Queue: 4 jobs
Job 1
Amino acid sequence: MSDDIDTASAPPPPAFPAALPALRVDDVPQGTAASSSPQPQTVLALERRVQAPVRGTGPLDWIAFVLAFLVAPVGVVVAIVALVLGYRARGWVSGIAKAAVAIAVVLSVALGGGYALFANVQQKQAAHDAVIASSARWCGELRATPGVLQSPTYDWPTGAETVSASMDGMQKYVDTWTALDKVAPAGIEKGTASIATAAKGIIANVSSSHVLDDAANQSTMAQAVAASGVSAWVSEYCK
């Protein structure tokens, strides 16, 4: 008997499958170790929370309504905020908020127009007061001689016995208005100078002709005075 083992006659080794089938949880019988150890589960619950609609008018709506009357520009801003927040919260806009916007806008426009008008009046008044202040010296010197402004020629000299005497009076007249021209405000400076210029013209004519025509000279000076605007300036700015 041989000690060698006949490998040809030996039974083949048992065959194992290459991979075992996956075992599902459902395939494990109840009461086994697999069922006694529950697997942790993560549950993501997405819930839509529906907020109950808010009914009625909110406090901000009434605040905006009150501010629309008291402080219109602020009321516009608050009313717009009330509209936005009210729509987000309720899904609709209250009538009070709408009214607050309309009232605040109208009053803001009216307030702005009134302020612009008031500012314009104040500006004009300030300019008027400034002209009065600048005319004070001119007005004082013009009124220094009583009766000058009541004369249509501003007291042009007439009735002198000689041409020489008339010339002296006319020269004093020119000197007076030349001095007034130096202190005259910008608005009446040309008018003041025009009276002095007209008087100088008469003096030049009398000096060259040696003829004194009082009627013609008075007419010339009356026209110069009327065209100068001095009378209107005195009425408006000599207070």
Job 2
Amino acid sequence: MDQKFHDLFSFIENTMKKQNQQKLRGLNDYNMVNVVRKSNHEVGMHSNVLYSLLDPNGLHYQGDLFLSLFIDKVLGIKPDDFGSDIEVRAEEATAENRRIDFTIKSDKYYIGIEMKVNASDQKNQIKDYYKYLVEESERDNKQQVKIYYLTKFGSQPSPYSTGGEAIAVELVSFKKHVIDWINYCQHEIRNINNLNLAFEDYKDIVKKITKQHKGNVMTISEELSKPSAKTLLQSALKLDREMLKIKGNTLFSFFEQVKSCLEKEKYTDISGSINNQDNVATNDTCYKWFVNPRSYKGHVGLFFDCGFNNDLYLLVEVATDHLHFGVVACRTVVGQYELTNIPNKAALDKLLTHQKWKSFKHWYSKDCGNIRALNDSAIDQLLDFESSKLKVDILALVKNIKVCSSH
């Protein structure tokens, strides 16, 4: 092997060791808030967190500190000009029982904030909120009404939401305005550890939804992108040209391991006699399975005669993305095996799932998970079938089916 590739593999191995050392020393990407709610959950995550911080009576005990900074840095209004008797509400109901994400009201302003993380606009949503706040202000103190549209990147609301009317909507974003606000808040409470950590966790979540998140643990891609690693990066890019072949060879090698194991158990590989050889694992079909997953939806695997009754045979295969093993039915036509549909069988229903795919004959199988993604579990299965739980499960299935068919 070329010395450059040896250097690349040594570099990757050392980087992975450093990653583990960092994790053991407490440097990690754990975020307790994110465990409870997904990053893009509007109400459960962002509405709740923002309201808890903006509420002057919140358990942060900082009064209107965070609210004043929000008015200044997000709404763009000087707190001294905003007025008095400030009230913050979440999910304020309109006359039509629609709910505004946030309202911030004073004796001078009635502010409505509509927040969108991933949700789409609703019909006349902005129009109705604006109308409601205008009617409220006219009954009260003729406050100035302003609508803010808070999105990940400062997007415009659609005409579907504004009703096609020329409503002056202020555009604010999580990426800039909310991040800036968080930073100013952290500066003010920098010596209050628990609040500072809470803001840091929320900032991390905002960065995730705005594609700015960078994990604390070093990554191989970041290390290879450094100028000092230029030669190693060249080797990595050259290696990438060969990766589809490597993946195909690895998948074929996996099937060879399966074959060797089952033949030791005195079961017969009948794959060479299957009438549709596109369904049989070869170097070529395994390579094609990885090349273009959108156009190549092949079922690639190996077929075994394990002594089952009723023309049933064992199949271990990869389908569109997942690895399966189970039982197919075949009929013999001029010395070849032709797949046929398996009807519902009570005995097999207890062991496997009846698959009724359009692209393949009905059969019974167990789904072993996504193999195309090549996560750690998939890699372990592909590289070490002999020591895997998969091997144990396949052999156990064969014995169970023999017991069922003998009764």
Job 3
Amino acid sequence: MRGIQLKGLHRVTAKGHVYYYTHRGRGGLRIKTSAAIGTAEFMAAYNEAVKKLKSKPSGNVLELVRAFTQSTEFTGLAPRTQTDYQKHLKAIETKWDKLPIAALGDRRVRGDFKEWRDKLATKSLRQADYAWTVLQRVFSVAKDRGKISVNPCEKGGRLYEADRTGKLWTDNDVEQFMKVAPVHLHLPLMLALWTGQRQGDLLQLPWSAYDGQFIRLRPSKGRGRVRLVIPVGAPLKAVLDATRRRSPLVLVNSDGLAWTAGGFSSSWRKACARAGVVGVTFHDLRGSAITRLAEAGCTVPEIASITGHSLRDVEAILDAHYLGRTTTLAMSGMAKLERSVKLTVKPSTASN
């Protein structure tokens, strides 16, 4: 029935199929019917979904999940992160919605949650960790609000560890990419390498953030999301100043349009393949930027002020992931030692 309007009704088209939800975004419930909108069957399904949505769960995990989605800890997340959380929140609701809050104080319930994570891990270790993190976050907010006294998912450990040791963009990688890749992909590389920012933040970077000397932005992730003021190095400035502004956004595709995350990733992979750059990703430019700054002699606070990492995160990245195979800092350190130590014992020339 064309023109009908129902409060909160949201239409989603996926793979050629149309689905309706009671609301857009968090808390929305799918209207489970294939009947045409406006029919009696559709209205019955819609009213049932609305009734279920309005019913306030009490005394169970579903109540905690619903409270979490209304909290600033959730609403303050970046839109992409909220979307990622939603997938796991739905899975948590399906599995644990009727679990009484009182049961969370039983030490055995942690084992039940661990078994659930183990089953998820058979498909993906990373997603199992993510689901655990979301569940832990739900309980953390509930505990902070005084709804529960104990968080059974604290300190659960990780099943998946990404080994990025040695995953650095070398000077040769950069040179080869710049030679072979399309011109509109040169600036993304330079921005990532000279600012250390995430792909998502760079794809949304407006020209208004650049004043010819600094780039000012607020990262979409990270604790506090402190606004950064990043000095623009001469090589990056040369590329920025030479770029024609075809959009309010700095980075655009070959048609001058804003990138989608998927479109950019696909184009980037193809460009890397043509350039023979293997074993590294766009995300590795972020770690490479940190390493380059460290090798140039920058302190941890100086690096953090550019990339937006916490001091602890910079140290952890340098220690665990990126400096394990580089000799630049080791050579620099040895040279400093040689300059500071006076050789007081002459080497023996006597033969044994």
Job 4
Amino acid sequence: MRIAVVGGKLQGVEACYLARKAGWHVRLVDRRRDVLAGGVCDEFIQCELTREEDLTRAFGDLDLILPALENQTALDALSRFSSRSGIPLAFDPRAYRISSSKISSDRLFAELKLSAPEPWPEDVFPLIAKPSGSSGSRGVRLICNPDQLQAAFMAGVSPIDWVIQEYLPGPSYSLEVVSVEGCRRCFQATELFMDAAFDCKRVIAPAKLSTSLSDEFERIGLTLAEAVDLRGVMDVEVILNSGKLNVLEIDARLPSQTPTVVFWSSGVNLVQVLCEAICGKPLPSSATIAAERGVVYEHIHVRPALLETGGEHVMTAAGTLQVYSDFFGADEALTDYASDRDDWCATLIITGRDREDAWQKRCQVLSEICRRFGIEQCLDPEPMYRCNAGER
């Protein structure tokens, strides 16, 4: 298959990486030339997506278009071109519009009577504030007292455009759902770990969920996919608090990070499943999923005398990424590393027989990097989950 991946940021890296794992020819399309995914594709075309002749030049000879961006104008242009040309688009515009607004998503959770963080009960702290139209954990803030709340919405920022909720501590999990023509499948759940800014720095599989919670997670995913009449892929994120799964958000688009973890752990290539389903191939049954291997997927930033883990923002600041095998002991890495550089970033992909084995191997990889570069300080920041009692 010959496909176009539109967008060269982290979603584009994910899409190109997994499409090439499927053995497909991948054309990356972006309006900028120097993009993260530039080293993970077979060919690149610079295109603004605004003129018919440019769209035909970029996509006219391909089998499918896979959007990997969140620019609404570009997404609308791709939808129109797909309708005119007949080239399939692996994207659901209607479901995306619902999921791209946290306000609309929260309203949907309430209508479906799904457990979710309650809207902020006045004068109760701590709380979580997040911009409604922002993707993932971008802009999320933990607010511990009224002074911090007031400071957060100074300088003309309106709280109307934000979602403000009770803060629920607990482990976070992600699940992908693919749905085409009323046929829906959930795939492997993964566990998410955040940095100090609530940006996902690490994904581990398999997730530590009981059978009953795993079944409940799948039920939530299928319920949401049916409610938005999904035709494509959707990511569902939950937090486990007091033994209950609470829905945090949904994203009706190809996510970054988790599909690669699912691929290395379960053997299921979500990009391949999605694109083939859009082109008419039946979705696989759960019986086709291989035994799960342990996977640790982690972002690191190496500087002189310092190695630090961090969220996806670490990688957005990197140069063009390349895929390296056996990277200081990691199975693979997506990185801008070069032997003459002392400041570089990498996404490490590390596997083992099980979750514990993969974690031990991960520690050995970080130790080897520190040894090779004479690094004495290794930082692994986490969110400040608790506010001081005096701040309430």
